[in-house]
Amino acid sequence: MYKSTDGGVTWKKVLFRDDSTGAIDVEIDRNNPKVVYAALWQAYRKEYTASSGGPGSGLFKSTDGGDHWTEITHNPGLPAGIDGKIGIAVSPANSNRVYALVENANGGLYRSDDAGATWTLVNDRHDIRQRAFYYTHVYADPKDENLVYMQNTSLFKSTDGGKTLTSVRGTHGDFHDLWIDPDNGQHMVVGNDGGGAVTTDGGQHWTAEDYSTAQLYHVAATVGYPYDVCGAQQDDGTICVPSTTGLQRGRGFGRGGRGGGAAAETFSPGGAEPGYIAPDPLDPDLFFSGSNNGGFMERLDRRTGLSREVNPYPLMFSGEPSSALVERWQWTYPIIFSPVDPHLLFTSSQHLWKTTDDGQNWTRISPDLTRHDPSTMGPSGGPITHDMNAPEVYATIFAIGPSKKDVNVIWTGSDDGLVYLTRDGGRRWTNVTPKGMPDFGRVSQIDASAFD
Prior knowledge:
Blueprint: E1 2-3, E2 12-13, E3 21-28, E4 36-45, E5 50-52, E6 58-62, E7 70-71, E8 83-90, E9 98-104, E10 108-112, E11 120-123, E12 137-140, E13 148-151, E14 155-158, E15 166-168, E16 175-180, E17 188-192, E18 195-199, E19 216-221, E20 228-233, E21 238-242, E22 277-279, E23 286-290, E24 297-301, E25 306-309, E26 335-337, E27 345-348, E28 352-355, E29 363-364, E30 397-402, E31 410-414, E32 419-422, E33 430-431
């Protein structure tokens, strides 16, 4: 942790544990700025695993503005054993009231009424400490020492010092930040996976999250003109935006493909947040889309609204390591049409799959085209909270590059650093990984030349 006394021009390191540990939260007593609480967090994340917690994690207190620190991780009442991520809050209404949301085997919301000297576990509900590395935030109201907020998939509120919780609704899910007006606790700004929202009545009503904060994984355009540009938005579903937005295109359900009508301004082509969108090359109203875990691939006919699953390997999984999966589907697995044959659609697990009948039947056309190193395919998470939620599914084909000139030429790239090529439609494959490419370097995209 660093401290600046000149507005950020220069900095001084004031708290350090080791190279595996960093500062994750800091709270200054508003009634006495010399009193500072800080949380350190030992954590790392790799492509195939994540770790939250270790001997480096802990809770600290300073009474001289951060020049000297005392560790209070094991003060009476706090849990024994390994800690992970910790969120802290000091009540401006009462400096002796301190809250700590602790990731631990016996974790939960802890409360101190003597400025951190002793602690009491007041709430151990799973939904305030699940997936701790991604959440774990706590905030105190400026006027009421018993009013406290916690963030996880929902925004939780307690009016009795953390003993009982209610969910504050009206915004997007997955909460990561909260600002409370120090002069008016009814005025708050929340930050979540949908963006930001403002309330002036303590969370009863929120402003709309209607500004552009979209993070798109991939984009694809429909055939013809006017066309739609479609993509999957992190934590906010899928969307297609017309090339002629605002030019009175109407609000019908189709666009003329095989008899459709006028198009709506924007629409969802199906699927979910991390998926590819593959518009049919012959019909602007047909879409193939994916969702996390590979457990769901959707074919959507926008004219009729009819949607059906067309999964190559219809198994929804969660909480299993890569080594336990027969077919390893990445969080954002490819779905791509051949530029040469508009009826030929590809997707991939560790194998390459193809269909020529809109996903009614699939054929596996490759062996495992990854390193499938056992050391990268074990359980993810720990040592406290395990997390196996598809982003860490590893040893998969992460990129597909069909030739733009020859239907039999296909390139693949894996998330563990291999590039393969077939020139006969998948009967034989050659490892063409560049010699200078780092081992286990993710191949994110492959774009075959249109000229060679």
